[in-house]
Design a protein that fits this description.
519 residues; alpha/beta; eight-stranded antiparallel sheet; eight-stranded parallel sheet; 22 strands; globular
């Protein structure tokens, strides 16, 4: 990758690298639309005949959908692992648990919502069904649910309470529905060898009083249809959903009993019933960053090479934990197996405790640890997904609630008032320059591209004007939707500039903030 190209800034504020073909700027394409090799879209096809220059040009043409832009703007999202594992002490349940073990006597989802709101979280995802198959609402399609517990006389509905509480407190709702299902393997249809055939969804059952306005005919196995029916329940009976979270886990079953998931049908139903929801992380909208430590790569690309597998499932062209997913070199390495270059931004998941489910002998991470994770996720073009597991009483532990508040307060101190607000901005031949009107001390810099026009910046420097000359104070690679730079020492200057030294095509800098942390 060349980092020495001279760059220029157009009158409209777009920064482009000379010597590269610069595509026309395009608005986000409609949901689900794919671009061919000559047009912008969420994904652009890769050809075996593409040269390295072709790959870079195509990568510069990839654009996010409106739902992806809204999701990347969330920055901090929460996971809530809750279910029978909370009471058995397991992380991966067996599927034959006695439903009566589920007894959250003090369930208080408003407490969850208040703690998340006060912690700065804007979306929360509940494990509606984990790998054990226990369902946190009274599903018509399973006996392994809250309705089979004596909790609240079999009338409890955690999902209802969760969704209502989150919306009351201004938090978007997400749902995790595990494809793996140990209970359905033991007592149902998981991996029963059934063929894919057209299924009508919803499939009405005995005593069903629903009169659906519309039905869907989708190809699925017996278990795929089971999942479709549960997705239909969740997405039609509990209000708007903004994230549907799948993983790719298989049940812990004999290798000859693998269930091939009906991804294409599941995606189609989600798109029809929750058109604004992103589908993560075994999905076309959001990818897993590749570790469970909450850490993005130093240079995290939202445009990455992908391949299509298993009935339309989006999969990595390179290893999921490859240290480089989207650079020029990565595009070339992936070309032999890649089908598309796709806008597939990273989600960084991590638990506030060592386990994903609550364990009384574990303690939350320190504020310092959480702050470091924030800068290495949100500060690296990714969205943080922090798990906070409710306890056996159905509440978030007091220590975790306190830590969430302390975490938000710390981030607010790290990135207080933007000193560049109201500054005079000049778009010059090779940089965007800020004049603050007076000397200001800075130790935190926040940048963002206008990703409606793609992710283009490959390298850049930030400079301050001191002692009559420009001097470099920071240098990095990608920016994307968010880049936060921590200066090793505070710098005092009136004039600041960001200079793009390498880019794939026309870009726009949407955010250039200067902060002095309040230590």
């Amino acid at each position: 990758m060349s980092v020495s190209r001279r760059v220029f800034v157009t009158a409209a504020g777009a920064v482009a690298a000379t010597g590269l073909p610069v595509p026309a700027l395009a608005a986000p394409s409609p949901a689900g639309q794919s671009g061919s090799s000559g047009e912008s879209g969420q994904r652009v096809a890769v050809s075996p005949d593409d040269t390295p220059e072709d790959l870079v040009r195509k990568a510069s043409q990839v654009r996010p959908t409106a739902r992806q832009i809204a999701w990347q703007d969330l920055e901090r999202t929460a996971f809530l692992h809750f279910g029978v594992n909370t009471f058995t002490g397991l992380e991966w349940g067996t599927g034959d648990e006695d439903p009566d073990v589920f007894q959250p006597a003090g369930l208080d989802t408003d407490q969850w919502a208040r703690a998340l709101r006060d912690g700065g979280f804007r979306l929360a995802i509940l494990t509606v069904k984990h790998h054990d198959g226990f369902v946190l609402y009274p599903s018509r399609y399973s006996d392994h649910t809250v309705a089979s517990s004596s909790w609240r006389d079999g009338q409890g509905d955690v999902l209802r309470s969760f969704a209502d509480s989150m919306r009351r407190h201004g938090i978007k709702v997400g749902v995790y529905i595990s494809p793996a299902d140990e209970n359905q393997y033991l007592h149902g249809v998981y991996a029963n060898g059934s063929a894919r055939a057209d299924r009508t969804v919803p499939t009405l059952v005995e005593g069903d009083d629903r009169s659906p306005e519309r039905t869907f005919t989708l190809p699925a196995t017996d278990y795929g249809a089971h999942m479709l029916n549960q997705l239909h329940e969740v997405l039609t009976e509990y209000g708007p959903v903004d994230e549907v979270w799948f993983d790719g886990a298989q049940g812990r079953i004999p290798p000859d009993k693998v269930e091939k998931y009906d991804w294409d049908s599941w995606y189609a139903l989600v798109r029809a019933l929750a058109p604004d929801a992103v589908i993560a992380v075994s999905g076309p909208d959001v990818r897993w960053v590749g570790n469970e430590g909450g850490l993005a790569r130093e240079d995290e690309w939202s445009v990455v090479p992908v391949q299509e597998k298993d009935y339309g499932r989006t999969d990595y062209a390179l290893a999921y934990d490859a240290p480089d997913q989207g650079s020029r070199a990565a595009l070339v390495r992936a070309q032999p197996v890649a089908d598309w270059l796709q806008w597939w931004p990273a989600e960084c998941d991590v638990s506030i405790r060592d386990g994903w489910f609550y364990h009384a002998d574990q303690q939350p991470k320190t504020v310092e640890q959480l702050t470091d994770i924030y800068f290495r996720s949100v500060g690296r073009n990714s969205v943080l997904l922090l798990n906070i597991p409710p306890d056996t009483d159905g509440r978030l532990p007091a220590a975790d609630v306190t830590r969430l508040r302390e975490f938000r307060e710390r981030v607010d101190r790290e990135l207080p008032w933007d000193l560049a607000r109201g500054a005079r901005t000049t778009v010059g031949p090779d940089a965007v320059t800020l004049d603050l009107g007076g000397l200001r001390t800075v130790d935190r810099i926040r940048l963002a591209e206008d990703v409606r026009h793609g992710q283009q910046i490959e390298t850049f420097v930030v400079e301050a004007h001191r002692d009559g000359a420009w001097s470099q104070v920071a240098a990095a690679g990608t920016i994307g939707a968010s880049r936060i730079l921590l200066l090793p020492q505070a710098v005092r200057a009136r004039r600041w500039r960001v200079r793009v030294t390498g880019a794939r095509g026309a870009v726009r800098i949407a955010r250039f903030e200067l902060h002095k942390s309040a230590q």
